[in-house]
Amino acid sequence: MRKAAALALGLATSLLAASPLTEGASAAKQATPTLAGRIAAAKTAKQINYYPSANGWSRMWTSFDPVTIGADLAKARALGADSVRVIVFPTVFGYPTPKPEYAAKLAKFVELAGRNGMTVKLTLFDWWDGYADVKGSSTWATALLKPYRNDKRVISIGLKNELDPSNAAAVAWAKKLLPVVRAVVPATPVTISVSGEAGVAGLKKLKTLLAATPLDYYDYHFYGNSQNALALIRQAQAAVAPAPLVIGETGVSSRSASEGEQAAYLARVFQGAAAAGVRSVAPWTLNDFRTGAIPPSAVARSAPQYAYGLYRANGTAKPAAAVVKAAWTGKAYPVGALDLGFENPAGQTPWTTFMPELGAATKVRNVAHSGKWSVRLTRTGKNAAGSPSYRVAPLQPVRPGQTWCAEAWARGTAATGTTQVALSWFDVNNRWLGGAGSATLPTGTTGWTRLTVAAKAPAGAAGLQLHLKSGANKGSVWFDDVKLSASLSS
């Protein structure tokens, strides 16, 4: 036991050697931040959620690797991130009194973030449900946060990750802990995140229940339909108004969708948030995870959780990295983000097949209007529900009253049935509102023919899909060089 204690003390001493409590501490504390200033910073933070690729969740701390963390934060900074969210586990750090070696690891993380020009959002009490122990919770939070009372590198505190507003014990605990945290770090805004499952109703309920001890801002974890991002984010804003709202987590796994759709998903959320005036959107996460990196006890241990990263586990960038960099640096999104010419590499298109049981679209080479690739539908069926198609949703948010225009070049060989370009509108609850189609491609064998459609988004429209469709076709058709745009009116 004495040897273990000595080793722990040695680790704490080595980590503290360059921690915010020693060198750099005075610089960090010279200008005492204000609560208003930090709330403003939290509302505009270009924030990334972070775990190392090899060590997710609690393993980030039990296998703490400052070299890897420093390199990862530099990579995030190169994308344009200026803030990082890190999650702390009482059961790992020591409860109710944090262990010195783990307090030192946290200090080192804050220092590494500061070196890379990034602030830190601390999320507390993850993997924890001891809501009856208010005294122990208060002791732990006070000890953990006290060193950061006036540290300008800590931008905000998340009291609890994805608290369930329907859990009365959890809400009662939060009401008692909020004043405790504020007493320790009075100039640091405090929030609580709400999961995508709880949704807008969860945000509204939490705001009502915490009316006597309101949060400084609300943290919404957005994992809904990105095609409806603007409408959904506006609903969330209305639920917590006049308090500010940020999107503290968002993304989709490239195991559940293609890497191309992952990139498009994030682009839609960033654009929807910007249109709603929400200026902080935090992707989940920087990295994919290596096999075995997520602890078996993690709630999020399912396979999709391994592939939410902007970077693959081998360190190479996925298309999502370029999209996030564009959003954070104010640049144009990558030309191939919607893959309108079907030239993206395999697995990097946001297009998906619709009703593939009646005929699946196939990407083919050397039959193209331009470039090298097109998509083909051949020997398709048709039923009362519709025709098979290849579909995509725009990156730009949809507003009722906008006029949307689409075109594609199509050609056929012994084609029959109906081949056209179509627009389909959906409301915020993903209900189909109607659609519009182009003129049909002539049957038989044809050269490349331009098909166009224009339609106004109806009342209640929140999402749009473009379909390249061909039904009851005994031959083959090819599509290429798609265009999709909206007028500026809304």
Automatic annotation (TrEMBL):
A Gene Ontology biological process term: polysaccharide catabolic process
MF (Gene Ontology): hydrolase activity, hydrolyzing O-glycosyl compounds
InterPro entries registered for this protein in UniProt: Galactose-bd-like_sf, GH, Glyco_hydro_5
Gene3D superfamilies in UniProt: Galactose-binding domain-like (2.60.120.260), Glycosidases (3.20.20.80)
Protein name: Cellulase (Glycosyl hydrolase family 5)
Record keywords: Glycosidase, Hydrolase, Signal
Annotated signal sequence range: 1-17
Domain Glycoside hydrolase family: start-end pairs: 64-286
Natural source organism: Paractinoplanes atraurantiacus
The family this protein is said to belong to: Belongs to the glycosyl hydrolase 5 (cellulase A) family.
